[in-house]
């Protein structure tokens, strides 16, 4: 494709989606995540600290000629450290009509092109639409996963997002707004379930609205909430509170973006019970009569079954 203008991105999305519905992509069976592959990699930069970039991501950045990055949520330290030699383009404020020809033309000129997303590209990254638009123009693409900000937040909080008898489920979600209608906002439903750790992306500006809705829905105002601003960055800040008081605290701190909101008892890491995984019976194996299954397999089976 030599024309400067790409196909209409929505046509590309529709047509690539239709193709996927009809036939699975062979690459699914030929490659695993982390493999070196042909095309433009969509790399997860991780939450911010350059040390939280994957080895695969680092190698790709070191070889890149063009890095199109996701602006302020990709730490400039990481760009300086790994992509000093590459042309850097900030994707913020650019639409698909501009980004796709930029990446396509560089790739067709033989450049190593990396699309760098914050955290993991598969979580609120809008990566697939760029990949579909590129694929539609004959440019192969693939994902290289990254550490999503919820995982950095749980590490900062020194807790697990799942904890036996406290939280068996994790919801990655966002509040109502331009993208979600009030009916599509399920934060209250997740909190209602009780044993869910709710991780809210893209909701820093809406903490008060979100908490007000939870209070209106009669959720316990004492339910723990943590807001982690810039998890893993040098200016990381952790605000701990509850549904009843977190909005005041976040407003006092002045944060309107770049934070993850975590709701649920797992925030405190208190009140859980030991798991079955390291219980006595788990180490005996699932069926002591045949003794064929290794301890490792037995543990995996039992952890999965728990
Ligand atoms: C467009 S989403 C991208 C999420 C990203 N793909 C990920 O996996 O973390 C941006 C939102 O992610 C969250 N976020 C990203 N990086 C963060 C960080 N280092 N600390 C806290 N929240 C972060 C914030 O909620 C922010 O509004």
Report on the architecture of this protein.
It is a single chain. With 306 residues, this protein is α/β, with parallel strands linked by helices. It has 2 domains: 138 residues, Tetrapyrrole methylase, N-terminal domain (Cobalt-precorrin-4 Transmethylase, domain 1, 3-Layer(aba) Sandwich), CATH 3.40.1010; 118 residues, Tetrapyrrole methylase, C-terminal domain (Methyltransferase, Cobalt-precorrin-4 Transmethylase, Domain 2), CATH 3.30.950. The chain is 33% helix and 16% strand. It has 11 helices and 10 strands. The strands form 2 sheets. The chain has a 5-stranded parallel sheet, with helices on both faces. Strands 6-7-10-8-9 form a 5-stranded mixed sheet, with helices on both faces. A hairpin with a 7-residue loop joins strand 8 and strand 9. Helix 1 packs across helix 6. The protein is globular, with a radius of gyration of 22 Å. The C terminus is likely disordered.
The low-confidence runs, each spanning 5 or more residues with pLDDT under 50, are 288-296, 301-306
In terms of DSSP E residues, the strand content is 15-25%
- Order of strands, main sheet, comes to 3-2-4-1-5
Please provide the ordered H/E string of secondary-structure elements.
HHEHEHEHEHEHEHEHEEHEH
Spatial separation of the terminal alpha carbons: 52 Å
Oligomer: single chain
Structural domain tally: 2
Report the helical percentage.
25-40%
| Alpha-beta content class | alpha/beta
Mean pLDDT: 91
Q: CATH-wise, what's the superfamily of the largest domain? A: Tetrapyrrole methylase, N-terminal domain
Largest sheet: 5 strands, parallel
Specify Rg, calculated over alpha carbons.
22 Å
| CATH architecture level-2 label of the largest domain | 3-Layer(aba) Sandwich
- Name of the top-level CATH class of the largest domain: Alpha Beta
Q: Classify the fold: give the CATH topology of the largest domain.
A: Cobalt-precorrin-4 Transmethylase, domain 1
- The count of DSSP E runs of length 2 or more, i.e. the number of strands, is 10
In this entry the ligands are: S-adenosylmethionine
How many distinct helices?
11
Shape, principal axes of CA atoms: globular
